Amino acid sequence: MGDNRLHEPPEAWLARTAPGWRETVCAFANSSPGQRLLTQLRSRLQDGATIFPAEPLRAMALTDRTEVRVVILGQDPYHGAGQAEGLAFSVPDGVKPPPSLRNILAELRRDLGIDRSQVSLRDWAGQGVLLLNAVLTVEEGRPASHAGLGWEAFTDEIIRMLAGSNRPMVFMLWGAHAAAKRALFGPAALERHAVLVANHPSPLSARRPPVPFLGCGHFGRASAFLATMQPGRPPIDWAR
Fold first, then answer.
1. Can you tell me whether residue 129 is helix, strand or coil?
2. Strand, coil or helix: what is 117?
3. SS3 131
């Protein structure tokens, strides 16, 4: 199990974002909300807090803005040692999949008949799937501990930017925190993109109304939308 604790200064992981994100990332980092967030992260580290993941913006390092075809949006990273790897819902291969990821794999099997052996979703990121959380850091054993620190303003800006693109994309908003970002889409964006909302895949909500995650069919709906709206491009290989 690798060390997935945050230990580098923000300058290091901010600099690793892909070129298409760089201007937006730098603008946020230099803004008053961004400075407050980074100051709080440094302060918690100095206080001895264990923060995950090691690279909060890894999703934006692996999937450039110009390559995004699908956005999967969750709540915040896994809060156990060795789990969060900077990609929403993903854990490194060899790590036992957390319950939310097990339900994602179960829905993939139910929806498309795909049995994935890998638990890391990194290969999805390489195909244009932006694996983002509404909040990008968390403290060990304390789910949602960094809610309200300022990440929400940053991820709002990312979703708003993508929603404004003329390129049709799929947005899978899983859970209440993610679903709240549907308000960032104007009428034209809702017509242009596929915006799919379901409960969080956590066992606490995956089978509950109003939109149970298990049975939502988001993977198949995404593939069908992309085949229609992005003809000529290879489909997302969800088995990878």
1. strand
2. coil
3. strand
What is the reported pLDDT for 117? 87
DSSP lists the bridge partners of residue 198 as 174
pTM score of the predicted model = 0.97
Cβ atoms of 131 and 72 closer than 8 Å: yes
> Could you tell me the sign of the dihedral formed by the alpha carbons of 37, 2, 82, 75, in that order?
positive
- Between the CA of residue 192 and those of 15, 127, 164, 187, 226, what are the distances in Å? 32, 21, 9, 9, 12
Question: How far apart are the C-alpha atoms of 84 and 82, rounded to whole Å?
Answer: 6
Residues linked to residue 80 through DSSP beta bridges, in sequence order: none
Query: What is the chain's length?
Result: 240
- Which residues are catalytic, by number? 76
- Note the pLDDT tens digit of each residue in 70-84: 999 999 999 999 999
What's the pLDDT at 89?
98
End-to-end alpha carbon distance in the chain: 22
Distance CA 63, CA 77 (A): 18
Which is nearest to 198 in space by CA: 184, 229, 226, 219? Answer: 219
* CA–CA distance, 123 with 115 (Å, rounded to integer): 15
Q: How many beta carbons lie within 10 A of that of residue 230, not counting itself? A: 16
